[in-house]
Amino acid sequence: MKTIVVTGYKPMEMGIFKEEDPKIEIIKKTIKKRLISLLDEGLEWVILSGQMGVEIWTAEVVLDLKEEYDICLGITPPFLKQHTRWPEALQQKFELLCEEADFYQPIYQKEYEGPYQFKAKDQFLIDHSQGCLILYDEDTPGSPKYFLRLIRRYRERNDYQLFSLTPMDLEETVEDMRLTDPDYWNQ
């Protein structure tokens, strides 16, 4: 698999309301661990639409991985100025990520007009990847359920890999962090 799309929850869906929330570090470490295993299997591109939350954090992880791995980042938002209604700090972060990405191109070269743009974005991402890594919990559907539903229909007729990050994966990361913390062993 050469190209994977990464998606998942928005921050507020996970109870994250500040950029300094320690849960973000856990999520990013979990994504990084999975991406490294996929890189070892031949992954070359990570593509995403640049939504707040999992997708922005994934972009940051990919840019960090570029220091050690040959990996490319593609950002394809559904329309122009997707980020203009976000908090200012996130707007700036998104703009910097787009500048550092290997590929940036909105699906529609116009601003928001309707939900059809999100559907087209989802289909574009699936059509241009061989698999998806999604942070998702079946017990807490949230916004990723629509993308997941589309992937499941697509998989009925196409060879497409689906990798999930679950609360169990996040808990495993927390435990790994705890065990590698020297203070844990000095108690």
TrEMBL record:
Gene3D superfamilies: 3.40.50.450. This is UPF0398 protein ACFQIC_00830. Signal peptide: none annotated. The lineage of its organism: Bacteria, Bacillati, Bacillota, Bacilli, Bacillales. Pfam families: YpsA (PF06908). It comes from Halobacillus seohaensis. Belongs to the UPF0398 family.
